[in-house]
Write a structure and sequence with these properties.
Blueprint: H1 12-22, H2 26-35, H3 42-50, H4 57-67, H5 71-75
């Protein structure tokens, strides 16, 4: 029996938009996340933005602090 993988909604575009608006590169953002205790490599973060990997809640919490945004900003447009 073939199992089909259902494509889930991803927030990659929102992650990229927020990062671009803050003027941070992926490298600088990951360095800041690591400074805050989130052990994340740039290659892993790139997969979040590409929608290839689901982002951990602990990373979203720290990103919210870095970007000074709301949680809604991460999920904008995903309910359409």
């Amino acid at each position: 029996m073939e199992q089909k993988i259902r494509r889930d909604r991803n927030m990659g575009d929102n992650l990229r938009r927020l990062r671009d608006a803050s003027g941070l590169s992926q490298e600088k953002l990951c360095a800041e996340l690591q400074r805050r205790g989130c052990d994340i490599a740039r290659s892993c973060y790139a997969k979040y933005e590409a929608g290839e990997l689901n982002i951990r809640a602990s990373v979203i919490i720290e990103l919210k602090k870095i970007y000074n945004c709301t949680y809604d900003d991460f999920f904008a447009g995903l309910d359409e």
